[in-house]
Amino acid sequence: MNKIPDMSVDLCGIHMKNPVMVASGTFGYGPEYADLIDLNILGAIVVKGISAEPWAGNELPRMVEVRSGLVNAIGLQNPGVRRFALEYMPFLRRYDTPVIVNAWGRSVQEYEEVVARLNDVEGIAGIELNISCPNIKEGGISFGANPESAAKVISAARKRTSLPLIPKLPPSVSDIGALAKVVEESGADAISLINTIPAMVIDVATRRPVLANIVGGLSGPAIHPVAVKLVWETWKAVKIPVIGMGGITVALDAIELMIAGALAVAVGTANFTDPSVSVKIIKGIEEYLKQQNMRCVRDLTGSLKN
Amino acid sequence: MLDRFAGKHHTVPVMNIEQARILRVEELTTEYRTIVLDCPSIAAEAEPGQFVHLLIPNLQEATLRRPFSIFKVDNQTLSLLYKIVGRGTHAMSLLEKGGMINLMGPLGNGFPMPDKDAVPVLVAGGYGVAPLSFLAERLGRPGTVFVGGATSDDILCMGEFEKLNWEIHIATENGSAGEKGLVTDIFDAWLEERKNQGGHEIYACGPDGMLKAICERAVKHGWRGWISLDKHMGCGVGACLACVQKLKMDDGTVERVRVCRDGPVFEAGRIIWN
Prior knowledge:
A: alpha/beta; 8-stranded parallel beta sheet; 20% strand; B: alpha/beta; 7-stranded mixed beta sheet; 6-stranded antiparallel beta barrel; 7 helices
């Protein structure tokens, strides 16, 4: 069969040309990579985490390479909703690619505030609620780590927007299925996972932590099998769509996550190694579907055999 | 966001990803190397102070590229000068002529050209001389260069500056070449005789301590100065925010800007040193 397979997916009302997005924090706000790849080719762009007000992030060093990945503690530096809307949205609106905004706060009120402000910005297709960043002292992972606080944040955010709400879950919880169920019941339209895995690197010559924040989050090829397992468990637990991410480097990694249950995937750290990697992954998925005589990429989702 | 900090100078960011053939590798000293690459599209756009982001092919399990400032451009070729300091540069030193290497560039904003009546004054520490040597070549007129290092092995590119008739001042910490001491010592002595004269524009690249000292002097004497920062980078294009630097903005506020995208060249008076 030589027909071009149908690559489109409908992710809780967000129409995507293909299931491949770029992950929050690895693609800036769009213009950073626009000279290197055609942003129109992407399924969606998930921009770097935004808070209601500007945030300075952590001290340096913020990133260190490890075998098969990197550990970062950027600390969510961002210009705040107002400047994001002014400086970046006009640029992003020029593209025929949905923009999903990763949003975070340090309290339930701050989550409400950032969601309410983003709700008024023209051209946003959805909000990825970051309840899993390991790199800030308050907020982030402390909300996603247990179902009760996750429910509180999501219910509060739900009241402030009609945009698709996509909580991003942390990998280091005892029962991801139970957490995902609560997230679904609290009003989420989809779930994305995994965020980075809490990690630490020590310089043995000085016996000091390498990162100024001491701890950070591990990403890259090293975490991919962890993501596959957690996506699979999440997919089994909920009916809402799952966006899979974690160490995707080649098309087969993305396909693996879709087989495990992801309707869409996000490419993260690999953008740093090769800015055109997402374009190659889109082509690779298409090739795979042709080889497998599959007409539609959506048939991959949850197609794991026993 | 681009070009907010580079004054009158404006570099249109034209980036490419190119698979380049290694034309030549040279061992300058035991620690310093040059590598010459055939990469026409990047070479055509490159300006002094800009850098390329290399994916080192034989560096196992590497996730990040490595940034190197551009040392020389000759038609279709690009040269890089580097010091073997870690895993990445060690792997790089094993690459051989004929091999291929993937690079992105040219990235960042280069050095603004000096006013046409100003005498360019360059201050280099170690391999920081690489982008300054490229600048000297593009300037088309001689100036004064200060070069410093730990030993005579760290004094590089003197032939290039001699060829262009530059006035050269050298300092080494152990006295094995030039004056004994820091490059800032010989710069200070020179400056003392000219501090009330205008008409100079400073360009510096080297370790942070040296750059900080140069910035202080530029500000103190009201000379225009430009420094190029050397920071560990992630993406190289401004997306990851691993390489930020505190900078004084026009409205007096302080912001963390991206060295890779908003720099690596900044106006001396804007840097907030920790």
